[in-house]
Sequence to fold (195 residues):
Amino acid sequence: MHAAADEPIKIFKEWLEEARATEPINPNAMTLATADAKGRPSARMVLLKGVDCEGFVFYTNLGSRKASELTVNPHAALCFYWRALAKQVRVEGEIELVNADEADAYFASRPKLSQLGAWASRQSQPLEGRMALERRVAKYTAKFNIGIVPRPEFWSGFRLRPVQIELWKEEAFRLHDRTRYKRDGDGWVVDNLYP
Fold:
């Protein structure tokens, strides 16, 4: 069976809206799995900040472990799980940086304290102590006290362009409903999978 280019994204967006009503904290939280140049995996929770037919977008410090791994191995996987809905979405795909205008627009939409935090954090680097972080926050608070906080060069976003999306719904007796969409040109090949 074949599906249109927007079908799995449309379903995902519907599920995300359901989750916004049932998950009180960060319904847009997702596990991001990456691997380094030797194929050693790592995973962490990040927040989805945009989704459309082009892909799933999140932001980070470009000096972070995740960014380093995505640079040397531009393939990743995402997993969303909404316990209250008993639904899960798995996404696999290829990674690219968002363009500067998109990153600038998102950075400008963040609260000022979050913008300052992006400047202050040397994400994934060893921290000498909490006071070191607080001193860096104070430094950038003083530097950008008045006016607009520009986006740091070392902070941007990544887009995962999906090549496979799996929609999973819990069913009785562990006979779950699994639907897999595999990219096929401008559309998708759709399969139902055994639970």
The mean pLDDT is 96. The longest strand covers residues 155-169. The radius of gyration is 19 Å.
